[in-house]
TrEMBL record:
SMART domains for this protein: REC
Gene3D superfamilies tied to this protein: 3.40.50.2300, Tetratricopeptide repeat domain
Keywords of the record: Phosphoprotein, TPR repeat
Protein name, per record: Chemotaxis protein CheY
PANTHER family cross-referenced by the UniProt entry: TWO-COMPONENT RESPONSE REGULATOR (PTHR43228), TWO-COMPONENT RESPONSE REGULATOR ARR22 (PTHR43228:SF1)
InterPro entries: CheY-like_superfamily, Sig_transdc_resp-reg_receiver, ST_Response_Regulator, TPR-like_helical_dom_sf, TPR_rpt
Residues with PTM 4-aspartylphosphate: 58
Coiled-coil regions, chain positions: none
Amino acid sequence: MAFDENTTVLIVDDAHSMSQGIRAILAMGGVTQSETASHAGEAQNRLRGRRYDVVLCDYNLGLGMNGQELLEATRRSGALPLSTLWVMITGERNYGQVASAAELVPDDYILKPFTTQQLLDRLEAAARRKAFLSPAHRLLDKGKTEQAIQTLGGLIAEADSRQRRLDAQRLCGELLAREGLHEAALRLYREVLSKDELPWAKMGVARILSEQGDGGGANALLDQVIAEAPRYTEAYDLLAQNLTDDGKYSDAAGALEKAVAISPRNFNRLHHYGTSLLRSGDATRAVEPLQRAVDIGRGNSFFGPEAMVDLLQARCESGQTQQLDRLQHDIAARQGELPGGPLTMAVCRALTALAQQRPQQAETHLAEAAEWMNAPETDFASALRFLSAAVKLPDEHGAERAPDWARSIALRFADSRHELGSLLEVATPRPACGDAARAAYAELQDKSRAALDQANQGRLETAAAMLHGDAMRTLNCRLGLYGCAMLLRIAENRQEAGQDYAGEMQSLRELLHWLPHDNERVRGFVKRRQALIRHED
């Protein structure tokens, strides 16, 4: 990466004088397009709205997320492209140990205090290291994941240092796993582990084993990771997820409690810890971490509302009804920021009505919420919360509709054991809802296998039609992503052959209309579709 007047930089620091000083240093180095953010929420909003070449982020951002937690959140949400250079700025001398125990690491870090030349030199060095992977990053930016994987294979073979080889292997493993090419990803991770006992490679294997249903094998590896790198908080997160899938909600909360002790200001982890306690039936204990998450969220406009909803649910289920009206008011004031929007607000009213012994009003609110179930903005957490209220309806107040609601939710969101496990746990008071969720999950698995079988037999058009039809009926994101990938492959092949591909373009348009555009893969699909449109013109 050449740093010049066209380079865009985001500086994230809660100290105004520090961020302005960095802007001045960059300007002296010829970089004039820099912007600032004073906290994690503002940084996330900027990253969602614009692409930056470089992010310079202070590790300690005051109240709320620290820089490492911000890096993890933006990378996982798809708001941070892989090609963006992330450099952490910190005054903590042990930061190298902190970063080495993280799954997602910055491209480099620099210790305060630093001189102008030290910062510029560090940026140049980090850019040179990242440039090795730039051929793959460019392909990923265009949505060409298959070609990026092939390119990474070549980079692994030609790497002239151990670190470059590991960087390419790490990214390649992530892409293979993301694309569902589990056997290839396992071979890669095990090749790495045959030479280096690296926690991230063990985590890669553990994730795939977990996805394949081998929770025991995954947990054994996670125990090794935790023993070797006790600060590797993502290992606790995955262990907790696996325990949740197995119905061991108290054990999951115990794992997250240890992770929270390591990173006590991580909003997402606090939030998950609280919801794990809530699912384990310990709503009273859930109130404290959820209240902490809300307190952090109040100072970070990006995060607060959803944690408020879970806090409201915990207070409802624990009988702590004295603050419900205030919480409802706060949630309503930020309804536009809530995943689920009107559905979530209606569920909050239903939960409050149930806690205050008003079942008829709860039934009315849930019927209103159900009308929003297929809205694009409804996410899994919102739907799960809806079901948790629905299964508490008394028999004489709408309980007979709950299994149909459970089936619709499962068809849309139950892409893995994790979602199914969550649905089954919530459905415990109503066994018929659990049965409906299991049947829907099996149906989704059958649909995916049937399409894959057709593709493996060379019937790409048939496979694409199946995926498109099933995705449009269920609004299932995973089926939709698979369908987009298949339709784009067909359209690009027909373009090269000079054949018509208007049907594929129309089907793509229909899927992309409701798939989440803040998803990195969806953005790649949009770019590939636009390239096809430009070719037509």
